[in-house]
Design a protein that fits this description.
binds glutamine; 5 helices; Rossmann fold; seven-stranded mixed sheet
Length: 206
């Protein structure tokens, strides 16, 4: 009998703004059918949702104007498996510092994050990261990434980074809680699907 494979089903990629096609490509490589989500009707029968990197303030506004914000609230409450990278992490967190006052956070994972929190000198950087549960390091690309300021109860830290230019400061950069995984960086830009694979395992209930 063939090895048991994940049944990824229909995975939505929030397509209002940001690096949508990169996520689609990674998911397609894992055998998932992808749906670009731009309006509430696109959310029908999804087995998981990916929120890409981009600009969380813009995505927040577009979520409201499209009516997707209310649907996203419901999906979070229903426990739909979700992966958020960078701006997507900000949207899924409980609170964002240094955002717009009207910026929405959907509280899918109990994190307090600071937008662009790695500082001006290191707006972007790359590093090799050890991620719990993965057998080889991930090449992580950070682009004006959020810094995790606080992790709440039930949050598991899967990877941390030494903050460039701030000796002794380590911050969580991959976190998970229940059906939700978030990363401060962009695995999709490297074509690395291993966090997406973890997401698809959550679809199976592993
Ligand atoms: N700084 C962006 C924001 O606040 C996130 C950057 C990214 O997704 N690469 O939304």
């Amino acid at each position: 009998m063939a090895e048991r494979r994940h049944r990824p089903g229909r995975v939505g990629v929030l397509g209002l703004q940001g690096d949508v096609s990169e996520h689609q490509k990674v998911l397609a490589d894992l055998g998932a059918e992808t749906v670009v989500v731009r309006r509430p009707g696109d959310l029908a029968a999804l087995t998981a949702l990916v929120l890409p990197g981009g600009e969380s303030t813009t995505m927040s506004m577009l979520l409201e104007s499209s009516g997707l914000d209310r649907e996203l609230e419901k999906l979070v409450a229903d426990g739909l498996p979700m992966l958020g990278t960078c701006a997507g992490m900000i949207l899924l967190s409980a609170e964002a510092l240094d955002g717009r006052p009207d910026q929405r956070c959907f509280g899918a994972i109990d994190l307090k994050v600071r937008r662009n929190g790695f500082g001006r000198q290191v707006r972007s950087f790359e590093t090799e990261l050890e991620v719990k549960g993965l057998d080889a390091p991930m090449h992580a690309v950070f682009i004006r990434a959020p810094v995790v300021e606080e992790t709440g109860e039930g949050v598991e830290v899967l990877a941390e980074v030494d903050v460039p230019g701030r000796p002794g400061e380590r911050r969580p950069v991959v976190c998970a809680a229940g059906p939700v995984i978030v990363s401060s960086f962009h695995p999709e830009l490297e074509g690395d699907g291993r966090l997406h694979e973890l997401l698809l395992k959550k679809v199976e209930g592993d």
